[in-house]
Design a protein that fits this description.
Layout lengths: L1 E10 L2 E16 L1 H5 L12 E16 L1 H10 L8 H8 L6 H11 L8 H5 L7 H18 L11 H13 L4 H15 L27 H5 L3 H17 L8 H4 L12 H22 L6 H20 L3 H11 L2 H4 L2 H5 L3 H12 L8 H11 L11 H16 L11 H13 L3 E2 L3 E3 H20 L9 H9 L5 H14 L7 H16 L23 H4 L3 E2 L12 E2 L77 E8 L8 E6 L4 H11 L10 E8 L2 E4 L6 H4 L7 E6 L2
Parallel strand pairs: 8-12
Antiparallel strand pairs: 1-2, 2-3, 3-5, 4-5, 6-7, 8-9, 10-11, 10-12
Helix pairs in contact: 3-6, 3-21, 4-7, 7-8, 10-12, 10-13, 12-13, 12-14, 13-14, 13-17, 20-21
Length: 724
């Protein structure tokens, strides 16, 4: 079979891509070979005659909504077999269920009202019976794949309209009874609020229970594999309930608007769970201030073991949440505590951290996720023999149970991809036609989500109410509390027990662990004045830089500490900070950056600004998505990331904001004010300046283009200053 590009076909209201498919349908012996009695499949090519059939495949590239709905009925005849699935998975980005249903039923399904000419114009439809069959096929696929589209309490207008159509055109059919059952199911189910999706909500506590700081002894009583299994159980329950279209960039990016506070609740729930895990890790390590260094080190070791168990269970969500918490500034800076962590466990931690390495656009995590998605069990490989033995032993125990495992991904992977696609590709093309090629690209990501959701059905986990109640009772430390407790813990440690030589050796070891072996010096930025790892306890470590990067459409979000990533690359660590989310804000049409420190995928709209945790960003961008993400100190692809601090505050406290070559001073100033929790309407009262050196600043005119006006040969550091 060979394929050949057949160009484009343009119709009124639609543009099609045409592909010619050439298929061999027969191979026979030629006249001379037949005279000798040979058979076609036993003869060399020169003695055979081959017959080919060429068919035309039409795939709609762009069209009006009416044409796209019409194509649902003709796609099968055009050999575009995936069209219905793609349309149903992505149409919410440009139309409502009611609009699609009305077109499908009123225009094409109303057989009595339709003129004969109208029906005749539809490709491949020769009769009303064929039309009825095609509509039934589309409706059946809609109910199979996206039944949630019809959940519209309390009226259920679309479902009632569909039921009325079926009673008139397909009475007593299986589909009619199915729709009736679905309507009863929706009516009987209580309308779920946003918190109803979150298994870690404090509202789930029994009356009389209060949030409490973790008791180290109680936490230590849970076995490592039990904790990992219970975290996986909660992650699986939430991930399976994610509605794929909620992840579309055009949907997710609208969640911050006041009227959309209940938008995409299934995604918000998964984000809340991720943040709850990161905060639980920090609270167990820092919450009890009386702990000795060795005790705190044991808790860190326990969480590394739990992360390893999550890896065996192929739970990349909680695995990343734990790694993110351990890489947060408040935990990372406990250098004396890390010195007490055993070498083998540090190596295990290093290997787990490498899964989310940002090298080559997170190639390791992308390949691993796709490899694990369809495998029965985890594919473990360790360079450390002792860790390899332990891993294989635990894996063998899993295999002996005889139950396949699913794969729980880090959802931020897909949210980032879809946001990038939504930013990079236009919604409409010339003539105001809906760009359906964009939806095909988005479906590549949506299909991966659906595949992984299907794999999660393989898990066979039983909830442990004792652990779940303990997990829900935990009081999470705020960012300020965790950093304060971290300073106190480090100050209390006797750093003099180590000689300068051994201390230097340990600092090098820890630095290698976090930064990797290939540590480089940024070209455009001076090395930090103090290293959170190598600096002495006290002020030097407390001055660790504070940043934020949220993969939101137009800018980065929130303040968070970035001790681990190099200054040049703020996209290394993760999505968010205090409000931290993998999110997008479609306002400016550019992708939001990712934070080097807050690794929580949380939701800025939820108002939970109490210390989401740093992490590295794991984006699983499909092959068709943009390969280069905007970074700090580098202009590429018409965008870059700048750091904006407030005048009068320490320069290390800043907000990372993504700008494009379309952004002017008022836009950037307004976003900076929002980031710093100031009134965005006060744009006229502030000026934005770029720091050139200690005694030089670049002041921008009021309507200047920031991208082209900035000095790209110095650090992209800006100050937001109130006008005199």
């Amino acid at each position: 079979t060979t394929f050949q590009d057949g160009g484009e076909e343009v119709e009124d209201g639609a543009v099609y891509n045409v592909t010619l498919k050439k298929v061999q349908i027969q191979q026979a012996a030629n006249k001379g070979a037949r005279w000798l009695g040979g058979e076609g499949d036993q003869l060399p090519p020169e003695h055979t005659v081959r017959q080919y059939e060429t068919s035309k495949i039409r795939a709609i590239k762009a069209g009006t909504l009416e044409k796209l709905v019409e194509n649902l009925l003709t796609a099968f005849g055009d050999a575009d077999f995936s069209y219905i699935s793609i349309f149903l998975a992505t149409y919410r980005a440009f139309a409502s269920p009611r609009a699609v249903l009305e077109l499908l039923l009123d225009r094409f399904g109303n057989l009595e009202a339709s003129s004969h000419g109208e029906v005749a114009n539809l490709n491949c439809l020769e009769s009303e019976m064929v039309l009825r069959v095609e509509i039934a096929s589309v409706l059946r696929a809609w109910l199979d794949q996206c039944s949630e589209d019809f959940r519209e309490p309390p009226d259920y207008m679309c479902l009632l309209k569909l039921l009325d159509y079926l009673k008139n055109n397909m009475p007593n059919s299986d589909m009619e009874s199915r729709v009736q059952n679905l309507l009863k199911q929706f009516q009987n189910q209580e309308v779920e609020a946003v918190d109803g999706f979150c298994s870690t909500s404090s509202s789930d506590l029994v009356d009389g229970e209060e949030l409490e700081i973790s008791n180290p002894e109680e936490f230590s009583s849970f076995q490592d594999h039990v904790v990992a299994e219970q975290l996986t159980y909660m992650d699986v329950m939430l991930f399976r309930r994610v509605v794929p279209y909620h992840c579309l960039g055009s949907i997710w990016s609208q969640r911050d608007k006041k009227e959309n506070k209940n938008l995409a609740p299934t995604v918000r729930a998964t984000i809340s769970q991720f943040n709850a895990v990161t905060k639980c890790v920090i609270s167990t390590i820092l919450g009890t201030r009386e702990l000795k260094i060795q005790q705190r080190a044991k808790i860190i070791e326990k969480w590394i073991h739990i992360a390893h168990e999550c890896r065996i269970l192929k739970n990349f969500s909680s695995l990343r949440a734990i790694i993110s918490a351990l890489q947060s500034n408040s935990i990372y800076r406990l250098k004396t505590t890390w010195m007490c962590v055993s070498k083998d466990i540090l190596l295990m931690y290093e290997e787990l951290s490498e899964i989310f390495s940002d090298h080559d656009n997170y190639l390791t995590s992308r390949e691993l996720l796709m490899k694990e998605a369809t495998s029965k069990f985890a594919n473990l490989d360790s360079s450390e023999k002792e860790n390899q033995k332990k891993s294989q032993k635990r894996l063998q125990l899993q295999k002996n149970k005889g139950v396949m495992q699913g794969t729980v991904p880090y959802l931020g992977t897909f949210l980032t991809d879809l946001i990038m696609l939504d930013t990079a590709l236009q919604d409409y093309v010339e003539g105001g036609l809906i760009n359906f090629e964009k939806r095909r690209r988005e479906f590549e990501v949506i299909a991966q989500i659906k595949l992984l959701q299907s794999s999660c059905n393989s898990y066979c986990l039983i909830p442990d109410q004792k652990f779940i109640q303990w997990f829900r009772r935990q009081r999470h430390l705020t960012e300020e509390e965790s950093y304060k407790f971290s300073r106190e813990a480090e100050a209390a440690a006797d750093t003099n027990i180590l000689s300068p030589k051994s201390q230097k050796s340990m600092v090098k070891r820890i630095s290698t662990l976090f930064l990797g072996t290939d540590v480089f010096t940024p070209l455009k930025e001076q090395p930090p004045k103090s290293s959170p790892v190598g600096g002495s306890s006290g002020e030097s470590t407390d001055s660790a830089s504070v940043s934020s990067c949220e993969f939101n459409h137009s800018e980065t979000e929130d303040a968070c500490v970035t001790p681990i990533s190099s200054p040049e690359d703020p996209l290394k660590k993760g999505y968010d900070s205090d409000k931290g989310s993998i999110s997008s804000d479609k306002g400016s049409g550019s992708s939001k950056g990712s934070d080097s420190s807050k690794g929580s995928i949380s939701d800025p709209g939820s108002g939970s600004d109490s210390g989401s945790i740093p992490t590295r960003d794991l984006g699983l961008v499909p092959s068709s998505a943009p390969k280069v993400l905007p970074v700090y100190n580098q202009q590429s692809g018409g965008s870059c990331i700048i750091r904006v601090s407030m005048d009068g505050l320490h320069a290390s406290v800043y907000k990372s904001i993504l700008i494009t070559n379309q952004d002017r001073i008022p836009d950037v100033t307004q976003r900076a004010l929002l980031k710093h929790n100031l009134e965005p309407d006060a744009v006229e009262d502030y000026e934005l300046v770029q720091v050139i050196s200690e005694d030089k600043e670049l002041v921008f005119p009021r309507d200047a283009n920031v991208f082209y006006g900035m000095n790209s040969h110095v650090n992209f550091d800006f100050i937001l200053r109130k006008k005199a």
